[in-house]
Amino acid sequence: MYRLALSGLAILAGIALILSLFGLVGPSPLELVVSFVVLAVVISAVDAASQRLLHLPWRMESSLVTALILLFVMHPGADGPALIGLAATGAIASLSKYLIAWRGRHIFNPAAFGAAVVSIAGSFGAFEWLGTSASWWVGTPAMAVPVAILGLAVLWRIEKVRVVLVFLLIAVGTAVVRQAVQAQQFAIEFDLPTALSFAVLQSPFLFLGVFMVSEPLTSPPRRWQQFWVAGVVGVLAGWPIFIGDLFTLGQERALLIGNLLALTFALRGSVRLTLEKREFITPTAQELTFRARGKLRFRPGQYLELDVPHHHPDARGTRREFSIVSAPADLPTLRIAYKNGDQKHPSSYKRALAAAEPGAVLAVTGTWGDFLLPKGEAPVLMVAAGIGVTPFVSQLRQLQAVGAQRGAVPRDVVLVYVASEASELAFRDELEATGVPTVVFSRDAPAGLPAHWTWAQGVRLDAAGLEHVVPDIGARHTYISGPPRLIADLAPALQKARSVTTDAFAGY
């Protein structure tokens, strides 16, 4: 994600530089170049020093992303006061990552925090020497299309298109209503097309939504919570609130308030884990068992983000997402599993995780996800491919635990389990113990199947095969966890389901 965001911002900066040569954006080419150099050097230096003190690996991508965002948010300059202000902004933004954080999670968007502090400070007489403030010059018609195109690529990858769309609709709608109210107050004519054009093309909403509202580390864990945060930020950004005669609660300050709301949702998910053991559950997959140090709350089917600090991390960084295998009822024991994957060219993260010994303490920066079973007793179909069975193990174990406590009738669940070979059926004993009817698609026949498990005779799973083994798919809420290719292959059958929830993965 860092690499994608960095690439998008870098291309956007290049476009802005070209446009500045023709006077189509506010800053001059010299101001853009000098401002970026100052921001990049200061932020990189503060990040490197802070992470060295904290014994963390320095990630240049993170430093450059913050520098580029601030380049578009702050008013660029090439004179002494402006550069001092930009340096102060970068230093404050960088320090906020470490001084205002909760168990590895940013509380505030660093760029927004740095911009807000310097802008507010500059409004007081004692700090007038700070020759810059938040101007959001990126909100200009010439930049709208590049921001939209590059932003869509980023949002599509991190699956935040709908969240940012909600923010944009609310921010633009609020801004238009504000213009209408002001027109009425001052007895001037209100023109809706002009108001819409101004809100979309001459405001920073596009950039704010794409590159800041969407930031994963300051986002809450559930999609509905993300919509709430997007809505709050949209209202505050679209209708700035004046605080006296000094400053307003708009743009970056609106985002900071949204960050605080997100924190209230996300506090439950950040804990430390102590590794207790690792074991192979199939010839190519391992399971890690941890003990949670502190309160960890999650719902069956959600995933966690595990931070494994190590020296010289590659471009993908030190954090990855893993579906949680264990059920909430198993806490404080927590389990994850992963496939070994590429052994010839493993990522730096994979090597570091493989080297972790029992007793190692790792950080969970949060739990996320909406891969949750529907409420009530509606029938469910689970389709898992390989290690994609992990969220279903959590859900079925929790259903089993709750049912045993309450004496409830087992829920109507069917599991379709796809594996390359019978030996790759992970968590078979646990799944058999739940009593859920299971259809196995594998090349070879699994030995000793219980009565409620059947083998599909070596047939490859496709849409027709899924409808054959689950003829009542139209009555079931369907959940599928596996590679994108399998999800695409099953699409014709999935369209007939009562609902479809997917969890696509492509390795780590």
Please provide a written account of the structure:
The protein is α/β, with parallel strands linked by helices and 508 residues long. It is 46% helix and 17% strand. It is built from 17 helices and 16 strands. It has helices at 2-21, 29-53, 60-73, 80-99, 110-122, 141-158, 161-185, 192-201, 205-213, 223-238, 252-266, 348-355, 390-406, 428-433, 463-469, 484-489, 491-494, and strands at 101-102, 105-106, 241-243, 247-249, 271-282, 285-293, 303-307, 319-323, 333-339, 361-368, 380-385, 413-418, 438-441, 453-455, 477-482, 499-504. A 6-stranded antiparallel beta sheet has the order 8-7-10-5-6-9, with no helix packed on it. Strand 11, helix 13 and strand 12 (413-418) form a beta-alpha-beta unit. Helix 7 (161-185) runs antiparallel to helix 9. The radius of gyration is 26 Å and the shape is globular. The relative contact order is 0.08.
Features:
508 residues, alpha/beta, six-stranded antiparallel beta sheet, six-stranded parallel beta sheet, 17 helices
User: Could you list the spans in which at least 5 consecutive residues all have pLDDT below 50?
Assistant: none
The whole-number mean of residue pLDDT values reads 88
Anisotropy-based shape: globular
Distance between the termini: 13 Å
Strand order of the largest sheet: 8-7-10-5-6-9
